[in-house]
Specification:
The protein is mostly beta strands. The protein has helices spanning 2-7, 98-110, 312-315, 428-436, and strands spanning 22-23, 54-55, 59-65, 71-76, 82-86, 120-125, 135-140, 149-152, 155-159, 163-168, 181-185, 199-201, 207-212, 231-236, 242-247, 252-257, 264-268, 280-286, 297-298, 302-303, 323-327, 331-336, 349-354, 367-374, 377-378, 383-387, 400-405, 411-415, 420-426. It has one domain (2-436): Neuraminidase (6 Propeller), CATH 2.120.10.30. A hairpin with a 3-residue loop joins strand 19 and strand 20.
Amino acid sequence: MLALLALTGCGSEAKLLVENGTGPDPKLPPPEKSLIPTINIAPAVGWADGDRPVAAEGTQVVAFADGLEHPRWLYVLPNGDVLVAETAAPERPEQGKGLRGFIQKKAMKRAGSAVPSANRITLLRDTDRDGVADQRTALLTNLNSPFGMELVGDQLYVANTDALLRFPYRDGDTTIAAKGAKVAELPGGALNHHWTKNVIASKDGSKLYVTVGSNSNVAENGMDMEVERAAILEIDARTGAREVYASGLRNPNGLVWEPTTGMLWTVVNERDELGSDLVPDYLTSVREGGFYGWPYSYFGQIVDERVTPPRPDLVARAIKPDYALGPHTASLGLALSDGAKLPGRFQGGMLIGQHGSWNREPLSGYRVIFVPFRGGNPSGPPIDLLTGFIDDEGNAKGRPVGIAVDKQGGVLVADDVGNVIWRVSELASDRRAANDN
């Protein structure tokens, strides 16, 4: 009965706007406590024929590829081929137990996330450069909930949910038959609450950095279940030896190297069940050895009193994130706008895919935004690039996840509910006018 009540939208409404929880100094009201957390799900309905998201003024959006199976993450190869991880959560026998697990399982199903995993990396090729893929092949199959991808030389790294793998790759390959070599095991298991693992290489390719989300909301399963979780791991590409590069990051996903400072940046999904106004997800630089608070505190040193025993020693050294992205926006995708052929206001910053809330009333996220940067740091409020994922009845036509910039300057957006990859580009008329000036 409690589960049914929760799924009908029981819980508190936000008292602040999403904008109030955005930027370097977001408003952080007192937490709200309730027996039943706020649950407000946008049921997944998909796109009607001919329908599409709304692109920002001066841009246009087309379907780069459709008919995919839950496309989550993107990677653009040097030759322009686009890789997409068609993937979903693995089997997790411990995940749906108890009232909390039951509610989460039902919520994810309604949101379009509880689907079988295709366990495939698909290669898309646009041979005539018209902004629409005209060739599609299965590059890798029989993976285990793959997510992040990274090419280093002639080695393609793929982050499965439980292991980092390496495959041989030659320029132009459309399929890879070789069995992947295991570089390192990654935290998985029967619970595996946050299952996605992303990967990025150091500039010289000698190190791989892998995101690993927490095994809970706020360590309610015990800290012994959180070993090497809520962290970014540094893995030696040659030996597979690993260590924690940064911790206290509840669920980090997108990774980029910021070009001005050379710092690693990530987007992080923060904790739930403190009300519709808490806690903002965030974009932050990542310091080696840095601790970012989870589970003991949030947005620096604001203590989460639900976590026992407390750790004031860790709270004292918790780093405040650089830039809040609004509460419950589920910010996942991250890409530099460098190379994107978009209007000037979208130059010099980062593009972020916000998958959308389930723990906020009203909804938040469900859009692609741009955060401007100056001198290696965020320098202003976010700007919408792609919206229109929610219909007038509150249903989700799509949910944006991974972001990438293709070789022609188009911004690719993986939509795992619409089963589409959208491509956003500057309107040809605006580009001609800019060239004339």
